[in-house]
Amino acid sequence: MDDHLSASLVDEAVLPWQEANWQRLLSARQSERLPHALLLTGGVGLGKSWFAHRLAASLLCSEVRGNGKPCDSCQNCRLLQASTHPDFTLLQPEEPGKVIKIDTIREFTQKGALTSRSGGFKVIIIEPADALNSAAANSLLKTLEEPVDRTVIILVTAQSGRLPATIRSRCQRYHFTPPDESAALAWLSRQVQGTADLRLLLSLAAGGPLLAVKYARDGTLEERARMIEELTSVLKGAQDPLTVALRWSNLEQDGVLKWFSGWVIDLIRVKIAVESANIINVDQRDRLQALARKVNSRRLYALMDRLFEANRTLGSQLNTQMQLESLLLDWAGIGVE
To answer: I need a surface site. Which of 27, 36, 41, 207 has the fewest CB within 10 A?
Structure first.
């Protein structure tokens, strides 16, 4: 998931914690110093995609307001809303988790595709930009080195380190950070209905409000709770790790590895500082403290290394079930000798 948000949720130009970056861009636009290439970075759930699309709408709008907000009613806005605007291009992988190939980049750089048809701005959003394979990145680099007037390329990524330094150096970077907890909780309270634990949601989302909203709405908390019970049972020898691996192999692997990694990170933190550890799973402190006394530190760190590697190779051709079986067998054998 990146962090696109329904327009019905906000009335302002951008989300509250994005205002500083928005004003910075407005100032650049008003002084005719708008960058030809922008790199939007920061963690998942901070609204980078929302920001990119709002900027595109603002640049293409015929009746843009004083705060940079698009009018949402002119012909250009209606064309953009219908995904038929000739001066807007969105480049993404053909499937989630796959790469952006060189043919995709070549298609938008050839045949005058970088020149506006209406005489205004041309906007291209690439997300996630870290999905560019090496050939595609090299092709894009040539375009960045020879910018076209009034053409703005916006790269969106939560993994900027995966982009070549040559790409990063040719973009003006706009970094997004989580809002402070009180502001985030206030915003969440207006988006999430019911009795959800907002502080827990925010912690699990690493401070990303949009990701917290997603967790509140898509059953993530229920799946996480089941995974925690399974991890506890496997460690106690009450459940077969291979059976658990089979079930997990049918789930979204990004989420599986996220929760598994977060659990192991929390155990490491609790072993270091039992009472004062700053943990992710804030509702599970008692269970983590009990388990921390039963696990071997050296094996725990080794498993963490393996989970980091699994995250790094996510989306590769590795056999998912076999990988999970291996990780869960390591977890089952992590007890203190």
So the answer is: 27
CB 91 within 8 A of CB 154: no
Which residue type sits at 250? Answer: N
Q: What is the DSSP string of 81-128?
A: HTT--TTEEEE--SSTTSPBPHHHHHHHHSTTTTS-SSSS-EEEEETT
Residue 2 covered by a domain: no
Pair 161, 197 in one domain:
no
Instruction: Render pLDDT for 269-289 as a digit per residue (tens, 0 to 9).
Output: 999 886 777 898 989 999 999
* Number of separate domains in the chain: 3
Report helix, strand or coil for 126.
strand
The letter for the amino acid at 67 is N
Mapping DSSP to helix (H, G, I), strand (E, B) and coil, where does residue 14 land? coil
| Residue 5, pLDDT score | 47
Same domain for 126 and 239 = no
Decide: 138 and 108 in contact? Cβ < 8 Å: no
Do residues 16 and 144 both lie within one domain?
yes
Q: Do residues 317 and 252 share a domain?
A: yes
Determine the Cα–Cα distance for residues 152 and 38; give it in Å rounded to an integer: 8
Query: Do the Cβ atoms of 260 and 284 come closer than 8 Å?
Result: no
Which residue type, as a one-letter code, is found at position 225? A
User: N- to C-terminal Cα distance for the chain?
Assistant: 40
Q: Which pLDDT tens digit goes with each residue over 77-134?
A: 999 999 999 999 999 998 877 889 999 898 887 755 677 877 789 999 999 999 999 9
Pair 154, 56: CB distance under 8 Å: yes
Q: Which domain holds residue 296?
A: 220-332
> Based on the domain organization, do 67 and 79 belong to the same domain?
yes
Q: Are residues 77 and 210 in the same domain?
A: no
The 8-class DSSP code of residue 37 comes to: E
Which of 151, 152, 172, 160 is CA-nearest to residue 132? 160
